[in-house]
Design brief:
The structure is a single chain. The chain is of the alpha+beta class. It has two domains: about 150 residues, no CATH class; about 130 residues, Sandwich (Immunoglobulin-like). The chain is about 40% helix and about 25% strand. A four-stranded antiparallel sheet has the order 5-4-7-8, with no helix packed on it. Strands 1-3-6 form a three-stranded antiparallel sheet, with no helix packed on it. Strands 2-9 form a two-stranded parallel ribbon. Strand 7 and strand 8 form a beta hairpin. Helix 1 runs antiparallel to helix 3.
Amino acid sequence: MLLLFIAVGTGIFLFGAAGTWGPYKEGLGGNGDPRFFLVIMGFGTVFALVALRMFQIRFNSIRKDGRDRRGNPKRPWESDYPWRPEGQGPDYAGNSGGFLLGLVGFLGVLGLFNLVFISPSPWLLRGIVLFFDLFGLLFLLDALRKAWQTIRHGRPRMRWTTFPAFLGDRLEGEFLIRPALRPRGPVKATLRCIEDAGGGEPATREPFVIYQQIREIDGGADALRELPFSFDIPLDLPGTHLDRAGATYWQVFIQVPVTGPDFETAFLAPVYERDVNAAEK
């Protein structure tokens, strides 16, 4: 059904494009308002992008369920997440395409709503649309900031020295950045345990921090390319559980003070509960 919706949205867009450009413009447009076909194009684009985003969420969910069924419940780190201890990417980076689809779809809907400014509309309706435009502008500025950070600083990596790390033990890793950064002060590293509330799809969950530990690390006077760090993990906290609706997970958040906006990134940390039976054996 989602593939059908994507095809329908694409067809609607092509119909609007045919009434705007090309040899069929005169026949389809007639004496009507040419803005009608622009609205049709916008509606088709948003319709197809929303369906594509839903298809992506469903596909990722099925793929994750398949990994969970094949995994060993006593060794969840082998199947619950595509860990790369030798060089792991930032958290949520794998979902950047989905975020882009969602952002484009949201901005597309706002674009359709903004048609009230080129047609006779009540001022109250225009004020409501303007209010949502401000939210769209905030999302757009945040996306541009992240894109500028990626272009300027590249994509950082994390090398986990301990994999996995267990509750009550020590988490050690090495932050890798290319090209190098020149910090203007101590680097702040934060270990935090996060729990998702609400269940359902990831977009409907509300994460909140149930524990955090902050360390300030001297990045040195030279260019920063590698930064080792370590944390002592408390024993009386939940380990990583990514196989349930109210997921619990650990993150290491890195903040580097540089000229301009601070460089910030977060990495999912492999912190798990130790298997007591395995330890006794």
